[in-house]
Amino acid sequence: MTFPNRMVAYGLLFCGFTALPAVAATFEVPRSFEIMYVDLESAHQFGNDFRVDVDEGPHQIVVRFNKMLRSGGDTQTFQSEPIVLDLQFEKSTYLTLKAPYVSTLKQAEANAKDPQFSIYDVVSGHTVDYKQQILATKSGLQNSRDFIDEIERLTAPDSPTYRSDSGPVAAPILMEEDVALRMMEFWYNQSDDATRKEIRIWLADALYKPTVSNIQLEMSQFWFNKADKDSQKAFQTWLIDE
User: Fold this and answer.
1) What are the b/e assignments for 143-163, b being 16+ CB within 10 Å?
2) pTM of the entire structure?
3) pLDDT band at 116, cuts 50/70/90?
4) Closest CA to 184 of 166, 160, 203, 204
């Protein structure tokens, strides 16, 4: 089977999986985030902390930045306040959250005050609009907080912070090279350790013949070859920081 034909076959297979009636759509976050709740239910009931499957239609998903970070010569866990996202899921949608790379406590604190990320539909290749609200910062033990109660109060129509006229957050406009970069990151994150190693070797030596054969490797190669020089360099830099 030729590569173009395999691309079509994999595309049909991927669409076939996402079009199953029991699971209409998927939402995924990077490992530096966690999915806390889906429609005020614990994300653990849906699968795991990083990816959930939902039915077609509107859903409220609560996420939080959660990562070990450097602070001087030490490391510590940083958790942002929960971020409430209102999203509309179409049939066969696969949405993934893309956020700036954060490696220090200072960066995390700055980003927590004004979260900067986009939500990207892997299937259609476009960013999507969403509505965002952040829970207020509270002192004391965080594990004693009733987050569900706080979320209900925050999103209630009579809440002082409820923004009924704010509309969705406008999705940033992505150029084609940005799409290629996002797709390279996505397929690398979907790869196992062996495939990731092969991708890195292939990037260093274009004449290298990978010893594995799977959709993750082929899509990574496809999008890298499609990307312009700046996006290729950005992806290689991202791999170093990853």
Assistant:
1) eeeebeebbebbbeeeeeeee
2) 0.59
3) confident
4) 203
